[in-house]
Amino acid sequence: MKITKRRLLEGGAAAIATSLFAPGAWAQRTGGDAAWPTKPVRILVGFPAGASPDLAARAIAEPLSKILRQPVTVENKPGASGNLVAAEVAKATDDHTIGALINGNLTIAKLLNPSLGFDPEKDFAPIGLIGTAPLVLVVSGAATGKSAADLLLWVRNLGSAGKYGTPGVGTVGHLGMELLKSRAAITAQHKPYTGNPQVIAGILAGEIQLALLPPGLAMPHVKSGKLKAIGVTSPERSPLVNELPTIRDADVRGADLEIWTALAAPASMKPAAVTRLNAALVEVISSPEVSGELLKTGWQAQPGSPDALAKRMRADTTRLGGVIIMKGIHSEA
């Protein structure tokens, strides 16, 4: 078998992911306090009120408080794409502070910026996923063609004169698009913006021609005809946007990607507390009321174990870590 640069780099990312998130690593810890929690539980969110991770945290906070029989509060501390909050959660020692963190915080953050004040390998105890969502590959409404195949051909024909927008270097939108480019013979160049609303404005103004966007932001413009959707990046069609095919349906393989929000605790949290939190979280997001609320705010509920979250962390670190290494991407966030 020929050893290519791509295979070598992806293998390196896989090795990193394996070392970072060995299955059941935290489950081997012992001890705990069956009486937990003994005081209010804080969920820290590294984004402003009304942002997607904030909405997910607020959807589960009150139901969690009923099960845990303690107040569960949500505190917003925006900054550095959630990494400031991730660092605070990692250092928390009160056994009652957790974070609603996005996939970037729990997977690739350290690969993008080795000087960060936390390390996913050592500093977190995964609790469980809250919800997942695909990204939607959109192009300018001026793109010719109607089918996904026709629209992809239009993008390919732009060559390197084409531009794609993202909310910043090292974001999932950036890494996801570089992954997609490598799988779909696209050569469009990166233009970073300060946020997804600015990305959309850039497409509408003709500054860029394509982007990966969350469904809630993309679909109003798709339905109005200002943007055209090629498909979603999830392996299967998403209940968030049932009407859209997957990019797999356009014969683009190996570019599956979802964004997600999960609960994570400091590595120092007692195992009994982590176990109870996971059980409570699974009960909450499995309920029709909360899963329905999550769907309204752009998340598909994903109840599961800490091991399931760790598996997701490893997979994302491998997939996107390969892109980071291959493209030499660095971020100061």
UniProtKB/TrEMBL annotation:
Keywords: Signal
Signal peptide (residue range): 1-27
Gene3D superfamilies the UniProt entry points to: Bordetella uptake gene, domain 1, Periplasmic binding protein-like II
PROSITE patterns: TAT
InterPro entries: BUG, Bug_dom1, TAT_signal
A Pfam match: TctC
Keyword Cell cycle: no
Family: Belongs to the UPF0065 (bug) family.
Full protein name: Tripartite tricarboxylate transporter substrate binding protein
Source organism: Acidovorax cavernicola
